[in-house]
């Protein structure tokens, strides 16, 4: 049958889902799901030490990194503030002082 919950006010089985709420057509009662289903399929991005990273974190580079297409190098110990996590092989999007915007791999940073 239906996997919709019964109305908590009149116990009607004819409820329906409308956006973020359930609605009972018989008594017009509206309620939210007590335990909303959160789809957390996003993989957790971890640094070189295994710490989980989040948007806005500050990280430190643990290895000299050559900048592709340039003669400059991102030195060990460089702090990068306000990272943004993205999908892909290079999963950190950031701006490094003196170099500019670039993408980094999480394996070459540690959480500061």
From TrEMBL:
Residue ranges of domain Protein YjdM C-terminal in the record: 45-112
Highest taxon listed in the record's lineage: Bacteria
Domain Protein YjdM N-terminal intervals: 4-32
Database matches in InterPro entries: YjdM (IPR004624), YjdM_C (IPR013988), YjdM_N (IPR013987)
Family to which the UniProt record says this protein belongs: Belongs to the YjdM family.
Family matches, as NCBIfam families: phnA
Official protein name in the record: Alkylphosphonate utilization protein
């Amino acid at each position: 049958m239906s996997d919709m919950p019964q109305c908590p006010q009149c116990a009607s089985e004819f409820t329906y889902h409308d956006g973020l709420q359930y609605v009972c057509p018989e008594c017009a009662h509206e309620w939210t799901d007590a335990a909303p289903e959160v789809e957390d399929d996003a993989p957790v991005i971890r640094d070189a030490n295994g710490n989980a990273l989040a948007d806005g974190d500050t990280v430190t580079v643990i290895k000299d990194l050559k900048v592709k297409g340039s003669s400059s190098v991102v030195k060990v110990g460089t702090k990068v503030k306000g990272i943004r996590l993205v999908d892909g092989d290079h999963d950190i999007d950031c701006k490094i002082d003196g170099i500019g915007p670039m993408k980094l791999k999480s394996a070459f940073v540690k959480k500061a």
